[in-house]
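Lab intake sheet, docking and co-folding queue.

SAMPLE TYPE: protein with bound small molecule
LIGAND NAME: zinc ion
LIGAND FORMAT: SMILES
REQUESTED OUTPUT: full 3D complex as C-alpha cells
PRIORITY: normal
SUBMITTED BY: R.K., bench team

The fields below were copied directly from the construct record.
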Amino acid sequence: MVNGQWSFERSTRVMVVGCGALGNEVLKNLTLMGVQHIVAVDFDHVEIGNLTRSVLFRKGDALAGRYKTDVIAERLRELNPQIDIKPIIGNIAYDVGLGLVRQMDVVIGCVDSQWARFCINRLCMRAGVPWVDGGISELEGTARVFVPGVNCYACNMGSEGLKDLKRRMPCSGIIRRHEEAGSVPTTSLIASIIGAVQVQEALKLVQAEALADGSIESLCGKMFYYEGEHLTNRLVEFKAWDEDCAEHERWEPVVQTGVHLSMTVSEALSILRNELAAQEVEISLRNDCFVDFVMERATDSQWEVMLPGRAVEDFVMQHERLGGIPLSGLYQHELRRIGNRFPYQDLTLKALGLPGQDVLCVMADGTERFVEMK
Ligand SMILES: [Zn+2]
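RESULT FIELD (auto-filled):
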C-alpha cells in the first residue's frame, strides 16, 4: 500500500444512516479522513443517556432537545469548516429520496434493527450503491459489506427471516409498526472499534483500482466479528446473492423530470404524461401507502385520516375516540396507485409522504419507468 492512499478523494460522497454511538464514531472518522460531502440521517433527539458514548454530543444539546443530525452538522463543521454536510431528520424507510442515495459513493449503516438494515439495503440495491453495515452490543461487534450484484443483506436473512420481517413491516395491513427497540447496552469502546472498521471498509470501496488489482481486499462476502472479553477476532463467510431475491431490482435508467414535491397529483400526472409521452401514467407508492380513512370493524364507523401509512398509528393514538379501540379492531383503507382514478387529485406529492429528491416508480402505458423529482 502506497503511503497517502489511505485518505478519501475530495469528491467522495458518503451517507451515514443512524447517528447514535456508532454513527458518532463513523462521522468523526469520515471527517478526520477528509470526506467533504456527508449526508447524515436520523430521526431522534440527543438525550442525556447518549453522552457517555457519543463524542459529538454535549449536555446542552440534550437539555435543549436538539436533533442529533443538526448537532452533528454543527460539530463536523467545527472539525472541518469546508465540509458540506446535509442533515436529514427522518426515517431511512421513507424520508430519504432515492435520487440522493444515487449520488453517494457509499452508504454506511449505523442502525440497530433488522428493519432499518433492510431499508438501507433496498435503497442501495435500487441505486446501485455499496453499503457497510455495523452492529454493536456491549462487548461484541460486527461489520459487513454489501455490494449490488455480489452480496445482499436480504439474501443473507434467508426466506424465513425475510418472511418474519415482512410480517412486521409497516403498512402491510392494519397499523403494525412495532420495531424491536434498540435498547441493547453499548459502550464507546466497541463503537470506536466497529466504527473504525466500517470507515476503513468504506475507504476501500471507493478505491476501485486497488480493489481490482488485489492490492487491497474488501470485507464484501465476509463478516468481521469482534469480541472484547477474550479479545477474539474472526472473519467468517457471509455471502449470499440469490437471483430470485425481490430486493435486487435496480431502478434504472432514471429519467430526470420537472416534477417536484410541492406539485399536486394532477399537475404531476400531467407533466409525467407529457415528459414520458404516455397516454396514461400512474405513480406507485413503493415504500409506504396513503391512508384516507380508518374504520372500526365492529360498527363500520369511519374516520378521515389522509396521511401516509406510517403516520396512522400516531393519529389513532392521539384521537380521543379512536384511541380507545384496540388496533386489531380497526381497518385502514390504503391507496398505493396514484393515477387518474386517485380521488384526491389536489393533494401535493409531499402530502402523500414522498421525500425530496425521490425517484418515482411510474407505470407509463403499462411500462415501468423511473423518474427523479427535482
Ligand atoms: Zn437479495
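REVIEWER NOTE: The first strand starts at residue 13 and ends at 17.
SIGN-OFF: pending second check by T.M.
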